[in-house]
Amino acid sequence: MKSCPKCGNRYSDDTLIYCLQDGTSLVFDMGVDVPTVVLGETESIVSRTSGDRFQIPIVDSNPQQYRQSQVTRFSTPQTKSGGSKVFMAVALTIVVMLVAFSVVGIGVFMFLRNARSEPNTNVNIAENVPPGSNESNYNSPLTASPSPTVASSLPSTTKPVPTSTIEVPPLPTTTDNLEQSRNEVAQRIYGWRSMLESRDLSGYMGNYADTVDYYRRKNASIGEVRADKARAFTLYNSMRTNISNMTVSVNASGQTAVAVFDKEWNFNGRDISTGKVRSQLTLRKINGRWLITSERDLKVYYTR
């Protein structure tokens, strides 16, 4: 017979080494004398008064008790959850720290990007543009001369004001806008010549403003200009014109332009007219369209 010194359970199976309840090493129980009995056999008893022997059958009144005595009871092993709880706590802490660092990093990145993209308070305003030359279409490149910045015009004692509170009106033009305006003016003049050669009087007059400084006449009406042009359309069946050596200058506002060019013509019909002059057209941007407001000749090369 073996017993557990910790829980006190006893086991009749001497082959067991550890307690089935708590795993403690079993020890032999020396205080219990269990006779060795073989079931189904008889026990021999010797009488004290005589030497005769007689046998008493041993009847097992409860055969199941012996079978069940081999294992007293079983206990369900308990899962030790202490280690898993510690692991989960450590993992959760790491995840929270990673999320916090990510939020801080994103905030710093957005702050630095906004600081780099903040506009400068100094605004350059272009002034008058001198005429020049351009090799691509006509020889007149434009260069804008910058004026003093807004910041330099403020008193020295003025404290800087955040750019979000300064309302700066949009610049009237930039160098790119001036270049685009010059191209538009040149295209308008070439279209004006094409309408003349195609003898489209209505389209030709569509390039003029309502009032024009027409050669020696100031503020001539569009009707007076049309009447003069109509006489030429009546006299000539073929009207060929060549434009060369054009220079275009646009003022700083981008609303007025002056084009100077050589105009050579050859008109044929009931009469013949040829010649070459240095012409000047002044144009103004009206309702988004460049229209002629002045037409005159600067120099006459020849006429026949």
Number of helices: 6
Share of residues in strands: 25-35%
Q: Could you give a short account of the major beta sheet?
A: 6 strands, mixed
CATH architecture of the domain at 176-303: Roll
Helix content: 25-40%
| Structural class estimated from helices and strands | alpha+beta
The multimeric state of the shown protein is: single chain
Count of DSSP strands: 11
Order of helices and strands: EEEEEHHHHHEEHEEEE
Query: Span between N and C termini?
Result: 148 Å
Radius of gyration: 58 Å
Average pLDDT works out at 74
CATH class of the domain at 176-303: Alpha Beta
Cross-sheet strand order for the largest sheet: 7-6-11-10-9-8
Shape: rod-shaped
In the CATH hierarchy, the third-tier topology of the domain at 176-303 is known as Nuclear Transport Factor 2, Chain: A
